[in-house]
Amino acid sequence: MDILIQHLNKSYGPQKAVDDISFEVKTGEILGFLGPNGAGKTTTMKMITGYLPMDLGDVLIGGQSVKTGALKKQIGYLPENNPLYLDMPVMDYLAFCAAIQGVPHSAIANRVLDMVQVCGLGAEKHKRIRELSKGYRQRVGLAQAMIHDPAVLILDEPTTGLDPNQIVEIRELIRKLGQEKTVILSTHILPEVEATCDRILIINKGKIVADGAPATLRKQAQGRQVLQIRLEDAGVEDARQALASLPGVSAVEISNPSELRFDVQSHPEHLSNREIFELCVQRKWILAEMIPLETKLEDVFRDLTVN
Amino acid sequence: MKPAWIIAKRELNAYFDSLIAYFIIVLFLAFSGFFTWLAGNGDIFFRKQADLNVFFGVAKWTLFFFIPALTMRQLAEEKKTGTIELLLTKAVTDRQVVLGKFLSCFLMVAITLALTLPYYITITYLGKVDHGAIWSGYLGLLLLSAAYISIGLFASSITSNQIVAFLLALSIGIFFQFLFEVIAGGMTGFIGELFSTLSLSMHFESISRGVIDSKDLIYFLSIVVLGLYLSEISISKR
């Protein structure tokens, strides 16, 4: 089911938490929701689930407004701090969630076992949730969100508290689910978005500041090429001047004089790999390293959200 | 209505899973049993009458203190741990959540009261029993419990602190249990009449004497409906 978010607004007193946000998520898409703390991620997600009322605007899922409350069965939600009934055994808790989400009585036991298997809870299934480690609690949280096989999954920081192996497993699980469901997940772990999401939405101070595939965003922010090179058999000052005088190069910085390392920045829309190589051939310098510096998603994020 | 029942079952299981249920049952039976049979001055053997009026009088006060202990965690705890968010984003309405919580407490009280039925059986051996009065006494206790449960749920819905919820439920309850009657005693005319109508004890006593009047039923049901309605409004504010 597609999610359509139209002019969403929410204020807490005088402070605007969400300021006229509109976007769309298609079925089979995994949307990564990024933003610094307090940007309005959680508020937006709570409004999508219908938990928080919105001041203005609407959220349509499959063409129907969440305000009616009729869509709750279509949504699986994992809240931020993963609140669970700690006194309940895992199996009982999942069965309760399934029953309340309207899973038919005869199907509950099977759904619970499925989820236990999918989320890797086999060894812990008879323990009380209180006795589980944070990572396993997170898995229980994921399991309860998916137990009724919802068309839409809203996951607020799904991988917090997991160890690196578990993070990889959960990412794979989300990717697998994302093929047929609509997934919105929020995080501030940037490699996670690159690994899992088809599309990134960065919000800051309640407004959308970037929207696109991870690669597209990186390219947008990149603008000009930066090459890190290391030479041998050359003089530092001599090399710097020669590099700076190349037509495609806009700036040269000596990053390590003793190792003859330079950062070479090209003019916009210009690649200077070829010129540098030819210069080295001409001067009989050895071009020991030439590494294109990619703009990292971290930089994109920082550029857009620090001001 | 099914979701409310699912919630009620979960809450009831939670009472029996922790020790709360057993603790309350044992304490209730100990208190009411002691004052009904053993206290000497004022107990059944002292009165030499085959009725349960002593028990109903004691239970009125025991329930007054125990019910807030049952209801205090219901919504306050969920608000504190954040599980209320998870619960309300599932396929249930705010009303179903409140009804489910109410139902679980009510069943808990009903089970406790059912365990006092041996008292009833015992007095049938002791003398000639007015069965109607006994059953209407139990009905009175159930209605009184329903009223205090809905007051307790309301108290629990406006705070995330269980102790505050407990004390608040008691302080609202004390007006119905006691203070309205006292105020009514000191007033005359319309105001006296008004407070006397508001007093829960007055209505409870008329039922526990065996007189089931529609006025009393309406009184108890209005408290229940009002309490649950206010709880629903309170949790829908977020």
Topology:
The complex is a heterodimer of chains A (about 300) and B (about 240).
Chain A: E1 3-12, E2 15-25, E3 30-34, H1 41-49, E4 56-61, E5 64-65, E6 75-78, H2 90-100, H3 105-118, H4 134-146, E7 152-156, H5 164-178, E8 182-186, H6 190-196, E9 199-204, E10 207-212, H7 214-222, E11 226-232, H8 236-244, E12 249-256, E13 261-266, H9 273-283, E14 286-292, H10 297-305
Parallel strand pairs in A: 3-8, 3-9, 6-7, 7-8
Antiparallel strand pairs in A: 1-2, 1-4, 4-5, 9-10, 11-13, 11-14, 12-13
Helix pairs in contact in A: 2-3, 3-4, 7-10
Chain B: H1 2-17, H2 20-38, H3 44-47, H4 53-81, H5 83-88, H6 94-114, H7 117-126, H8 131-157, H9 162-186, H10 189-198, H11 200-208, H12 214-236
Helix pairs in contact in B: 1-6, 2-4, 4-6, 4-8, 4-9, 6-8, 6-12, 8-9, 8-11, 8-12, 9-10
Quick recap:
The complex is a heterodimer of chains A (307) and B (238). Chain A is α/β, with parallel strands linked by helices.
Report on the architecture of this protein.
The complex is a heterodimer of chains A (307) and B (238). Helices cover 35% and strands 29% of the residues of chain A. The two termini of chain A are 36 Å apart. Chain A has 10 helices and 14 strands. Chain A folds into 2 domains: 210 residues, 3-Layer(aba) Sandwich (Rossmann fold), CATH 3.40.50.300; 78 residues, Alpha-Beta Plaits (2-Layer Sandwich), CATH 3.30.70. Chain A is of the alpha/beta class. In chain A, the strands form 3 sheets. A 6-stranded mixed sheet of chain A has the order 6-7-8-3-9-10, with helices on both faces. A 4-stranded antiparallel sheet of chain A has the order 2-1-4-5, with helices on one face. Chain A has a 4-stranded antiparallel sheet with strand order 12-13-11-14, with helices on one face. In chain A, strand 7, helix 5 and strand 8 form a beta-alpha-beta unit. In chain A, helix 2 packs across helix 3. Chain B is globular and about 55 Å long. Chain B is built from 12 helices and no strands. Helices cover 84% and strands 0% of the residues of chain B. Chain B starts with a helix and ends with a helix. With 238 residues, chain B is an all-alpha fold. Chain B has one domain. Classes of the chains: A alpha/beta (307), B mainly alpha (238). Chains A and B meet through helix 2 of A and helix 1 and helix 5 of B.
